[in-house]
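EI: anyone free to look at a 184-residue chain?
SC: sure, send it
EI:
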Amino acid sequence: MGLRGFCYAGKVQEHVHVLKRILALAHALALFLNCNLVSMKALIQRVSTASVKIDGKTVGEIKHGLLVFLGVKNGDTEKDAEYLAGKIANLRVFEGSGGHFDKSIIDEGKEVLVISQFTLYGSTKKGRRPDFSEAANPDYAENLYDYFVHKMRETGIKTETGKFQEMMDVKSVNSGPVTFMVET
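SC: here you go
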């Protein structure tokens, strides 16, 4: 191979290296976009009491703790449920001695009431009727809801629930008020 062939081969290798870097960046961007476009949501409220009734019968009730409205979106995974359960269990939303949010629900030994809430994915951008196309189908969502509840219970937190896909009456007294949207 002459000098000209060597230079050409070097340029090809340089171009291949640049193309590999571009592909790596494109892959990283795709992962970033997926992480931000697909997210499980939980609206959490610090409560002094919360309960849920179905047909007039109380099926879940807590004193001092967190009321968690959980929404599952198409594409959510068990990894999302694990992350969200761990985040909520360790999120410091209770005041410590200094009056700041220094204590988690685990630190305080408080309770959790988890309610399935597909309407967290209701879009009101167009028209007057919410669009729920981003919400996961019921079978898929119920499995992830159950898994989320299982992961919350694994932390040792007393976890009460409503009943998936039932009409529920949820009653709560928001303490603070303190309300956060937590997403994966």
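EI: Residues 10 and 16 are 10 Å apart (CA to CA).
SC: 👍
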